[in-house]
């Protein structure tokens, strides 16, 4: 997937400033802008413009030479970028260059004062709160220090059967789209970062309409939503009372596609036991010998993916109990075959 | 005394049974291939005409014996012979075949006894060639038949994936055994 030019961070240094033309009088952020790949002349011109705009933009911007810790990094397409994260990235394009299809921050060269001001204000909006699309049904913000990860926030929403699509801009990573209707998700950062991205506390999550152009342009490359729901479920706690959880019986409606989902061998065992009949958490623990917390996380993952269903204490067994296996299939005769197979195969 | 556990690997011709056994077996797979005379069904040059055999040694010198049965219907008498002693079945289905759901129905019927007595897991191969039907379609058909069985997209050349399929089969056999009253 092509990397988007947008990622997100809620952070800025603030400086007292009065008389802002945009009405942000009490305090203004000082944001750091780095631009890579400019000629000395272009750089001088841009610096002059940024200086002129000092009191006219919503935030105060500083054009910096060191891009190792900047809020907005602009670069020419195809340039090798440093590893240092930027809160927001964008492209530097010439007037005669074609604009990329995906939305994002663009600096058109040669720079013009009003265009630079719009760019900086747009970037500030994105950094502060990316409410740029219409028909936003719900906005959920998580502050850096609120102790809640993106995975937890997503889990809460998904447990409530949210049917909207979601966009999460995640600090240091990029953007995650979840489209429940199409049962797909996509990211503009490598999937290998997904787990880390879900553990982040600094993000902005927005409920977005399914026909949002930004979503439609990327969702065709989406992956099955179970891959991210499974990860979220395993990483987070189920928000329900322990009493209610202990009284419910769970059974598997559908197996997770375990060759596609990251899992531990214990998850295979857990799926197996609740595919045979509905069981309480205590019964599952007794059958597998696994800790209750592991079982709760597993059940949470199944719930989010729609793999399991809940029965009352009188819930009927899903399958008729199989006829007694003739020889090998008796538990005793198997002698912990799964465990031994794990050892042999290195599962 | 050491024990042996027999696992059958079945499925239509070209579904990847021989490859899957080779991915699991710690010994070179004993193959019985001959020139494919049923090119209308599958274009591969060679196909299994007797059994493929592989094995995995467990602690205590116990062995899991893997038998791949020929996919062609004319060999189905062998399926029944082996089924009686088997722990369970790994059913591989070729998603690029003309009617993979029909193949599922056929094998569910043929191996219904083994599914009841032991367990069955399903690996759907060549989903990269033909993404449809997706695993949910297979799950739906299983639900209609009153079954909840594992259905995994499978690349039979990937040992890790085939191990997951076999591990799932064994876990399911154990789980069913422990729930038998």
Folded structure, characterized:
The complex is a heterodimer of chains A (347) and B (181). With 347 residues, chain A is α/β, with parallel strands linked by helices. Chain A has three domains: 2-133, 3-Layer(aba) Sandwich (Rossmann fold), CATH 3.40.50; 150-233, no CATH class; 240-345, Orthogonal Bundle (Arc Repressor Mutant, subunit A). Chain A has twelve helices and 14 strands. Chain A has helices at residues 40-52, 113-128, 150-159, 194-198, 213-219, 226-235, 242-247, 265-276, 281-288, 292-305, 331-334, 337-345; strands at 13-16, 27-35, 60-63, 72-75, 88-94, 105-109, 139-142, 165-170, 174-179, 184-187, 203-208, 223-224, 249-252, 308-311. In chain A, the strands form three sheets. In chain A, strands 1, 2, 3, 4, 5 and 6 form a six-stranded mixed β-sheet that branches. A six-stranded antiparallel β-sheet of chain A has the order 7-11-8-9-10-12. The radius of gyration of chain A is 26 Å and the shape is elongated. Mean pLDDT of chain A is 76; it is low at 1-26, 130-147 and 317-331. With 181 residues, chain B is of the alpha/beta class. Chain B has a single domain (4-179), classed as Rossmann fold. Chain B has six helices and eight strands. Chain B has helices at residues 17-24, 76-83, 100-110, 112-117, 135-144, 159-179, and strands spanning 4-10, 33-35, 46-48, 52-57, 63-68, 86-94, 120-125, 151-154. Chain B has a six-stranded mixed β-sheet with strand order 4-5-1-6-7-8, with helices on both faces. A two-stranded antiparallel sheet of chain B has the order 2-3. In chain B, strand 4 and strand 5 form a beta hairpin. At the A-B interface, helix 8, helix 11 and helix 12 of A face helix 5, strand 8 and helix 6 of B.
Distance between the termini of chain B: 27 Å
The value of Rg of chain B in angstroms is: 15 Å
What percent of residues of chain A adopt helix (DSSP H or I)?
25-40%
Percent helix of chain B: 25-40%
CATH architecture of chain B: 3-Layer(aba) Sandwich
Please tally the β strands of chain A and state the result.
Answer: 14
Proportion of residues in extended strands of chain B: 15-25%
| Estimated structural class of chain B | alpha/beta
CATH class of the largest domain in chain A: Alpha Beta
For the record, what is the CATH homologous superfamily label of chain B?
P-loop containing nucleotide triphosphate hydrolases
């Amino acid at each position: 997937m092509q990397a988007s030019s947008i990622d997100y961070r809620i952070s800025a240094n603030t400086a007292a400033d009065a008389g802002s033309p945009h009405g942000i009088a009490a305090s203004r952020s000082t944001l750091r802008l780095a631009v890579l790949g400019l000629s000395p002349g272009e750089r001088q011109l841009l610096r002059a413009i940024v200086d002129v705009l000092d009191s006219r933009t919503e935030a105060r911007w500083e054009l910096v030479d060191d891009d190792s810790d900047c809020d907005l990094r602009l670069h020419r397409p195809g340039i090798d970028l440093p590893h240092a994260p930027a809160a927001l990235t964008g492209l530097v394009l010439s007037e005669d260059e074609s604009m990329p299809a995906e939305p994002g921050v663009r600096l058109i060269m040669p720079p013009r004062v009003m265009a630079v001001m719009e760019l900086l204000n747009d970037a500030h909006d994105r950094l502060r709160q990316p409410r740029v699309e219409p028909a936003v049904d719900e906005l959920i913000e998580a502050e850096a220090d609120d102790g809640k990860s993106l995975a937890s926030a997503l889990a809460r929403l998904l447990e409530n059967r949210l049917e909207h699509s979601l966009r999460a801009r995640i600090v240091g990573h990029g953007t995650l789209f979840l489209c429940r209707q199409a049962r797909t998700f996509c990211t503009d950062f490598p999937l290998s970062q997904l787990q880390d991205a879900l553990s982040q506390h600094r993000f902005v999550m927005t409920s977005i309409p399914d026909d949002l152009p930004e979503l439609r342009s990327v969702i065709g490359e989406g992956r099955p939503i179970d891959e991210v729901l499974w990860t979220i479920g395993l990483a987070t706690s189920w928000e329900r009372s322990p009493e209610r959880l202990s009284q419910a019986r769970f059974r598997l409606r559908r197996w997770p596609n375990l060759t596609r989902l990251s899992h531990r061998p214990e998850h295979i065992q857990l799926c197996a036991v609740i595919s045979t009949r509905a069981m309480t958490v205590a019964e599952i623990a007794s059958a597998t010998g696994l800790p209750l917390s592991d079982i709760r996380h597993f059940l949470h993952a199944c719930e989010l993916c729609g793999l399991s269903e809940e029965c009352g204490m009188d819930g009927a067994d899903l399958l008729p109990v199989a006829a007694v296996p003739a020889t090998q299939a008796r538990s005793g005769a198997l002698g912990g075959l799964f465990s031994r197979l794990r050892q042999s195969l290195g599962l | 005394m050491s024990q042996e556990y027999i696992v059958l690997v079945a499925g239509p011709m070209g579904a990847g049974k021989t490859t899957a056994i080779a991915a699991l077996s710690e010994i070179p797979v004993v193959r019985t291939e001959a020139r494919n005379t049923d090119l209308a069904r599958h274009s591969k040059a060679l196909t299994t005409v007797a059994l493929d055999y592989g094995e995995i040694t467990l602690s205590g010198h116990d062995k899991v014996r893997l038998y791949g049965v020929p996919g062609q219907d004319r060999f189905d008498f062998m399926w029944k012979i082996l089924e009686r002693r088997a722990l369970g079945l790994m059913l591989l289905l070729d998603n690029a075949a003309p009617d993979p759901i029909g193949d599922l129905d056929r094998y569910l019927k043929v191996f219904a006894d083994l599914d009841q007595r032991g367990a069955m897991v399903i690996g759907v191969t060549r989903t990269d060639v033909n993404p449809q039907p997706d695993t949910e379609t297979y799950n739906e058909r299983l639900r209609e038949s009153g079954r909840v069985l594992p259905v995994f997209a499978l690349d039979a050349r990937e040992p890790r994936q085939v191990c997951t399929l076999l591990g799932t089969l064994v876990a399911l056999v154990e789980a069913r055994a422990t729930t038998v009253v």
